[in-house]
Design brief:
heterodimer; A: about 400 residues; alpha+beta; 18 strands; globular; B: about 180 residues; alpha/beta; Rossmann fold; five-stranded parallel beta sheet; 5 strands
Chain lengths: ~400, ~180
Amino acid sequence: MIITKVSCDNMYMFNNFSLDLTYQKKRKHQLSENDVLFDGSKIKVRKNVIIMGGNASGKTTFGKLLRFISNYIFHGQVVDDFFHLSDIPYKKDEISCFSLEFVIDSTAYLLEVSFMGNSLINETLSSCKIYRSHNIEKMRENLEKADAISQYNNTLKKETKMLSDNLVSYAFLVNMSSEAEHIKSEIRYLFSISKRKNDTLGQYVDIQALNDMLPKIDNTVYAVKPMSVDNEITTTYQIIFNNGENLVVPEGNIEWCKDRLSHGTFETIEFLKLLTFMKNNPGAMIYVDEMLAHMHSELEAYLIRKAILIKPVQSQIFISTHNIDIFQLNVPINVFVFFKRNSNGYNDAMYPSDILNKNDRNLTQYYVSDYFGVMPDYSILDQSFEEYFFEGTGGLE
Amino acid sequence: MTKILYVMEGEIEDRFILQMQRMKKLSLGRRIKFNLMQREIKQSDNIMTAQYDKVVCILDTDESGPHELAKLQHNIKMLKQIAKSGILIMAQRYNFEDELKRMSGNNRLNEILNLKKSGLKDVKKFLAQDVEYSVLKNVDLSKYICKTNEFYEKIKACGISFSKNVKFITSMEECK
């Protein structure tokens, strides 16, 4: 599944928000060659997205939004206890809505949903075939004209009907069509959102790769060896340190023994698992939220580029980071999207490639100069620091 | 690349300087809002966080009595700590709105900006948004801050002097 556009209203801090991941202008960069929807298609879509922005600019909540929608489709209802439906709308007594335009093979789908609390209000799922000659406008025109595969509307009843305690999809649970079944079978996703709750990656441990790479990144590690239970190799492994100590990682779940490792080593292990997942799941959507925050900035940049190169052509990856060394990466400029708080206090997104027309290697300079108007102004904190910490001394006493 | 900091009083100048950077009339640089004539910089202020090659100060001069000039003198002294190769001063005659009138040779701001409303509040609100100065045909941007010297003379008359690496400039070109 490749997402081409996501929109929402009254969800988290997104108000009338829309992010179109397609682009028109041809990029010369080699990595852009895989951006076509499918072989021969004229439609280009960002399959590698690097999200940057200040704190509370919406990077993590954008991941949550995608996760929410993915859950809605995959499970037919929002069951993940990561979500509390009451937390999602910004204005609690107003309707929330989202739409997801996505492509599987050469078919485009549009899912439009509005809901309030756990009550579905409207839901439409439509689809159209994409031909090689189609550009994005034609695809969207056809999607708009297409008959709905599934439609649910309860507004005429003047009340919202509760189908269950969860927010339940009509198309993906109550009245499943063969097309909805097909979509569900094609959806694979992985969200790693700020360590608050990672998807289980335990099964994606490649112990051989860990053994080869971890000692090169952390020189306190001597080796990583698999452990067997009843003569069967499992995902449990041990990290052997140079000082002779051993650390057993049960079922590949490093969370249980993270205190023994440096933050950077922990993040490396988690990230390598994510790369293994990505390699083994072509077509998956992956959202990596500041997963390498404790890593040296150059190593983070190095691993992010590796992730982009490892990612199968049919997959889409979103990576959020604060690391401005990322701008030095050999990637096309249109992979970057900047999130910010707009003047109304809501989260917004913009592409620097819309302002800069070339692959400008000075992107760092543009970003730190706030050329795109996305950097927060920390001067507003000065007065508070003066009041609570410096007590009028100006920091020198 | 030279690392530049632009210090300006408010949102209107901030947007203007950004537009000038986008139009390549000014070099790329970080912008921080700080009223150099009204507030004194403290060591703990965000403006003192990083070091730059050049610091460019954009001043409003509509209130420039002895108190304001003393504050400016203090602030320039502080900014010298973060400006490796010098400080440039761009003085607006009175304020940005006045500069805009002068640059266009028209006293009616609503006409210059193609606005229906002519109240100063409406004009200020408009200028605090993303104004595309490149489409304002009657505005001669080369005239911006060309009256800096008047302010310099006033400072001199008050007996205030600055060191050699503080330069008063009369065009954006000198900033590059």
